[in-house]
Amino acid sequence: MDNPKTVLKSALSRRTFLAGAGTAAAAGLIAGCSDNSGAFTPTTSGVSDVDVLNFALNLEYLEAEFYLRAATGLGLTTADIGSNPGTVVGGAKVPSLSAAQQNVVNEIAYDEQQHVRALRATITAAGGTPVSRPNLDLTNSFAAVATVANTLTVSGAAPIPSGFSPFADFNSFLVGAFVFEDVGVTAYNGAAPLISTAGIAAGYLAAAAGILAVEAYHAAYVRTTLTANAYLMGTTAYPYLGFANRISAVRALLGGSNETALAGPGTAATTTPNATPSTVVASDTNALAYHRNTDQVLHIVYGTFSNTAGSTTPAAGVAKGGFFPNGLNGNITVTQS
Amino acid sequence: MANQETQLVDNIIASRRAMLLGGGALAALALTSTAKAAITVSSYTDADILNFALNLEYLEANFYYLAAFGTTIDKPNAASMAAGGPSAGIGIGAGATTTGTAATIGIGGMVPFALPAVRAYATETAIEEGKHVTFLRTQLGGAAVAQPAIDVSPVAFTTVANAAGITGTFNPYLADAFFLIGAYIFEDVGVTAYHGAAPLLSTTTQGKAYLQAAASILAVEAYHAGLIRTTINALDPNNSSGYITLTQQVSALRASLSKAVAPTSPAYPAGTYGDDVPLTAGTTTYSLAGAAAVSATTIVDADQTNVIAFSRTTTQVLNIVTGGHAATAGTKAQGVFFPSGLNGTFA
Asked: Could you give the C-alpha distances from A159 to A232, A242, A269, B305, in angstroms and in order?
C-alpha cells in the first residue's frame, strides 16, 4: 500500500497529465478556453472532498489575516485558527482611510473571516479535521513579489517602488488585495469540478460556487477601483494600475498564464467616453473566468517555479515559500508539476 | 479619494436631477405569497439547464449591447465592431440558425455616457455577455433554443421599477446612473441563477465539463455584479443622491418575487431582504475578530453568516425575470422582459 502522499502525487500527476483529454464534448469545452493548462479532468480519485476544502481553508486563512490586519490591525482570534496555529509575520492597519474606504476594507475582512469559519465548520461536519492556520508571511512575501514583478516587461507600468508594503496606504492596499483576489477565483473555479458526487449532494459544490462568486465580487471591487482611479487621473499620475499589472504578470508567469491585465485610459486621464472596453473581468476569449489547478495555485502563493534556483519552468517538489514560509497544511501542499 | 468621489458625483449631477425617486409600496405585479418556489420540472438534461442559462444571456446581452452600442445583438454596428464585437450578428435562431426575432427596444438606445469609465464598463460587459450567448450556443449546437421574445425597452424596465416602488418612467438608457441601476436589476440575478443551476448538472464527464463552464460564467457574472455595485457605491457612498435607496428597492422586489424570507437570526443588515442584500451606504455593522463592531459596505450580495452567494431555483429566477408570473406550476411564465416566456424546458 502506497503512503497517502504517494497516492496523492500520482492522482494529481494523472490529473495534470490528462488535462485536455476526456470526451469530445469535454475537449470541445476545453478547446474553447484560451489558456487552459489548468484544466482539471473530472476524476476525483486520490483527493477527498475534505482535502479540497482544507486546501481552500489555507487560502482563506491567508486572505482573512491580510484583510483583518489591514482593517483593524488585528488578525483572527484563537477560536478560528485551530489547535496548532502557525505565526503571522507582518500586517498592520492601513492608515488614513476615508470612511468609505474603511467600510469596504471592513466588509472584505468580515467576508474572509466568515469564510474561514464556514469552511472549518463544513470540514468538521464532513467528518474531517480542519487544518490549523499555517505560518504566514505578509511582509517579505509582498516585497519579493514586487521584486520579481519589476524584472518583467509590462507595458505602461512604472516599477513598483522598493520596500513595497500593501499596508502603507489605500492604493497600496488595493495592489496587495489584487495579489490574492483573482487567485482565489481561479483556485475555487479549478476546485469545483473536483468535488465528488457525494460532496455535491452534501452541498459542498454549492458552497464552493458561492464562495467563488464572493471572491469574484471582491476581485471586481479591486479591479474596478483601480480602473476608475486610472480613468480619473491617468496611469502616470495613478501608477497603481500599472503596479497591479506587474502583479498580474507574476501570476501569469507562475500560474500558467490565466490572466487578463487591467486596461486603463492611457497615460492621461480620459474625459471623453470612447468605445474602448475596460477589463474589469479576468476571463478568456469566451468570457469564461479562468481556473487553475492546485499546482498552479501553489506556485503562485509559494512564489517560485522550482526548488532549483533560477529555474524558469514549473517543477514538482516545491513545498513552501512566499506567503507560506512553511508550506500549506493538509494533503495538498507540494507541487506535483 | 474624497475629491475623486466628489468629481464623480459632480459629473453625473445632471442625470441625478432627472432620476425619479419614489417610495411607495410594492404594487402592480402578480406577486403571490405562496411558499418558496421550487423546481417543478421532474426530468431535465444538461442541455435544458444550459438553455435556461442561454435565455438569460440573450436578455443580458441585448440590454448591454443596446446601452453600449445602440443595437441588438443580431445587428452589429460600427460601435460594436470597434469595441471588438463580431462583425457578423450574434446568432439568435434555434440551433445553428443565426436569424430570428430581434429584441424589442422601444425608445431605448445607446446611453449618452458622461463618465468615460462607465462607458468602458458597459462596453466590456456587452462584449462579454455577447460571448456568453455565442459560447452557450456553440456548446448546445443543434439543441440551442432560439432567442424568445425579449423586451429591453424602457417600458419593461418601468414596469419593474414601478413594482419596486420607483415611481414614474424609468429609462435605463437615459444616463450613466440609470444604466447602472438597470444593470443592477440583472446582475445579481445572473449570479444566483448560475449558482442554483450548477449543482443540477450531471456528474458525467460532459456534465463536469459543463460544470466548469457554468462555474466560470458564474464567476464572470459576479465580476459584473461587483463592478456595478462598486460603481454605484463609489458614486453615492452616503446615499445623498438616493442611488443606494434604489438598489434597496430593486433588491426588495427581487427577494419578494423570489419568495425568500429574511432570517431573523442572525439579524440581517437594515435594507436586506431574504436572498438579496442591497447596498447599504456603509450602515451595515459587522463583528470583526479581535475588534469592536465596525461599519461596512455590502459590495457583495451574499448571506450574512457564511458569506456565500445566494442561489435561486429556476422557478425563482423565472418569477423575477417575468415579474411574478411563475406563480402557477405547469403554466408558462410570461411577462416583463420575457413577454412570451422563455424557450426550453425551464419556462
From this structure: 21, 8, 20, 41
pLDDT < 70: residue spans in chain A: 1-45
Beta carbons of B244 and A103 less than 8 angstroms apart: no
Size of interface A-B (CB pairs under 8 A): 320
- pLDDT > 70? residue B277: yes
Question: Is residue B120 predicted with pLDDT exceeding 60?
Answer: yes
Cell numbers describing residue A279:
477589463
Partner residue opposite B308 with nearest CB, options A109, A211, A227:
A211
Q: What is the pLDDT of residue B261?
A: 61
Instruction: Give the distance, in angstroms, between the CA of residue A153 and the centroid of all CA atoms in the same chain.
Output: 22
CB contact under 8 A, A285 and B309: no
Q: Which positions in chain B touch A233 (Cβ < 8 Å)?
A: 4
Give the closest of B199, B221, B302 to A206, CB-based: B199
Nearest residue of B to residue A202, measured between CA atoms: B199
| Nearest-by-CA chain B residue for A223 | B227
Residue A165, amino acid: S
CA distances from B264 to A117, B316, B317 (A): 20, 21, 24
Q: What is the pTM of this model?
A: 0.88
CA distance B338 to B59: 8
